[in-house]
């Protein structure tokens, strides 16, 4: 089976020594960090993006490739609708084909109760001008030809998009670099440089960079980084397994999911497969710390998570991973350049079986590659996009809970605006960092 393409073995594209000074440092080379750097440089700021491993080597290249408005938390919808528009512009500015296709997204309902949940969510879609609608079983069968399962119906959004993540995010990084952003791979940020409660730069493995603003977009590593800086963030990361099939007949150009399996067409003629609503949590110190905040989520979906005894060595929440270190010491980010979890073999077999059952005319399903990613998730399944009050000049964008790829461009614009003081264009109260310390109840995003 072919190995996943982006890893620590992938050649460095963005090399060089970091400068001694810049306006803004962005930590993390995933889709959120790359898009933040792009919007900052286009606003006229000097920007350095530092990635400990490779651009997009972690969750930003391992996700499903869905760019969906459908099923979003109502407070995310406006940002996601903006992102849908930005994606089309960015695709026209890349020098490679990122596989951007308006194929739509379908949520397949097996029961009338599921259809009722989808119908209730339509009010949010209408309020934001999103074209989601309900399909009957006959309409669902017509949309996804050859599907064997009979459904009560589906929730469908025709304007939702898809793209190839492992191609897309490096291509966006190319746009940012050509616009003037300085991107440096294989350069970990060890600590923030803080004086009198304000960011004055960062300390990297290659030395200090002076900067008046820092954006942390560290994905699954964000909580660990912030804890070393004295900021508590109840963020965990869960493993999700994904597979790519060999080329098959293209029965549907978008993404679809039911309670067992999610799939989407790929640019190479195959399909990406994943288990809908299933993930695995490796139990570590942060899991115990964050448990009270995650209790509401656990009660709502007690069987959606499989608990694993402990994380592999070097993972963010592994028992042996240091929780504090100095700027002079090697950090956990240098010890593990790329967070590259192994896929779950049983889940891969389940995906082959379930997809073959959905499309019996395909015959046996052959996989050409498989991988897993660690999804940074929050107790209420919505991200943090906020300034850190305790450390002036620090902005955090993390915890996108599996929603980050699609919303990445607009989230990057929002984070850029938080740095520069420009109009963010959206109400960010839902995404404030203080919701975990101000006594707020955990309001779980819609499970659609």
How are the SSEs placed, and which strands pair?
Elements: E1 24-27, H1 31-42, E2 47-50, H2 59-62, E3 66-67, H3 74-93, E4 105-109, H4 112-127, E5 132-135, H5 137-143, E6 153-157, E7 161-162, H6 165-179, E8 182-184, E9 189-195, E10 198-204, E11 207-210, E12 213-216, H7 222-228, E13 236-245, E14 255-257, E15 262-265, E16 271-274, E17 279-282, H8 285-300, E18 305-308, H9 332-335, H10 345-358, E19 367-377, E20 384-387, E21 394-398, H11 404-420
What is the number of independent domains? 1
CATH superfamily: FAD/NAD(P)-binding domain
Overall mean pLDDT stands at: 95
Unreliable stretches = none
Structural class: alpha/beta
* Tally of individual helices: 11
Q: How would you describe the shape? A: globular
Sketch the major β-sheet: 10 strands, mixed
| CATH architecture label | 3-Layer(bba) Sandwich
| Helix content estimate | 25-40%
- Which class in CATH terms? Alpha Beta
Q: What is the straight-line distance between the termini?
A: 33 Å
Strand content: 15-25%
The radius of gyration is 21 Å
Topology-level CATH name: FAD/NAD(P)-binding domain
Q: Tell me the total number of β-strands.
A: 21
Description:
This protein has 448 residues and is of the alpha/beta class. The chain has a single domain, classed as FAD/NAD(P)-binding domain (3-Layer(bba) Sandwich). Helix content is 29%, strand content 22%. It has 11 helices and 21 strands. Strands 4, 5, 6, 13, 14, 15, 16, 17, 18 and 19 form a 10-stranded mixed sheet that branches. Helix 1 packs parallel to helix 6 and helix 3 packs across helix 11. The longest helix has 20 residues. The two termini are 33 Å apart.
